[in-house]
Protein: Pyrroline-5-carboxylate reductase
Amino acid sequence: MLKDKIIGIIGVGKMGSALLTGLLNVGIDKKNILVSDAYIPKETVEERFGVKFLENPQLAKESDIIILAVQPIDIPECLQEIYPFIDNSKLIISIAAGIKVEVMRSILKKGRFIRVMPNIAAIVKQAASAIYCGPRTTKEDEEIAMAILGVVGEVVVIHNERFMDAVTGLSGSGPAYIFEVIEALADGGVKVGLRREDALKLAAQTVKGAAELVLKTGKHPAELKDMVASPGGTTIYGLAELEKRGTRGGFIEAVVAATKRSEELGS
Ligand SMILES: NC(=O)C1=CN([C@@H]2O[C@H](COP(=O)(O)OP(=O)(O)OC[C@H]3O[C@@H](n4cnc5c(N)ncnc54)[C@H](O)[C@@H]3O)[C@@H](O)[C@H]2O)C=CC1
Ligand SMILES: O=C(O)[C@@H]1CCC=N1
Structure:
C-alpha cells in the first residue's frame, strides 16, 4: 500500500529520522522518500539516509503523503510554505503535539489530515502511537497512517480528536517519566552498593520485563504487583515507601499536566 506512494517528511530531527529509518528498514524504496529540514544540511541528510533532500514547497509538490515532523511552533510557517502545492489529493500526517486537524485545515484549505502521536521509542521500533483521522479522510488513508506508524511500533486508532491530547500526556510524553524511574531505580541500586552499569541494566530490564508481563498476560497491574509482594517480604516494604511519597499520585498528575499542556499548544 505504501510502495506506490511518494512520502515526504518535513523535519528529520529525532522523530522524523526515526520514522524515516523505520520506513527504509521495511523496504520502502529510497526513491519514494523525500525529506526536508530547515537546519540540518542537505548533504548531512543525503549522506546519512541516501534519500533526496528538497525544500518544503518542492517536497509538498512531489509527495502524495506529507509527514509534518517539526515542532508545534514551526507548523504554521511550514504550512504557509507548502500551501500553494496542496490539493485534495494530498494526505498530510502531523506528529506535532497539540496541533489540531482544523488548525492545519484552516491554513491549507485543502488536503486530507491525520493527526498522530508516536513516542521516542520509535527509534527502537517500540513506539506506542495513536492516530486520529480527520474529516474527509478515507479508509485507505487510515490504513496508510497505520502502516507508517506501524513500522515503528504499536498503533491504536482514536475516534475523538479531544483524546489526542490525553494520548500525548500519557504515551507521547510517557517515556520521559519512565526514564526518570529507571534513573532513580539505578540510583537506589548504587546507593545500596551496586556498580552503576549493573544497576542501570537491572533497572531498565526490570521496567521492560514488567511491561512485557502486563502486555503478554493481560493481567491487571495490581494483580501482578500482588504476585511480587510476599507477606512480610521485601517488596511490601518498598511499596509502602512509594505510597508514603505519593508516587502513584505523582504519575497521575504528570499525565494530567502534560495533557493540559498539549491542549495549550493547540490553542
Ligand atoms: N521527541 C518526542 O519524544 C516526540 C515528539 N513528537 C512531536 O514530533 C515533532 C518533532 O519532534 P522532535 O523530532 O523531537 O523535534 P526535533 O527538534 O528533534 O526535530 C524537528 C526538526 O524540524 C526541523 N525544522 C524546524 N523548522 C522547520 C521547517 N520550517 N521546515 C523543515 N524543517 C524544520 C528542525 O531543524 C529539526 O531537525 C514535534 O512536533 C513533537 O511535538 C511527538 C512524539 C514524541
Ligand atoms: O514534549 C513534547 O512536547 C513532545 C510531545 C510528546 C513528547 N515530546
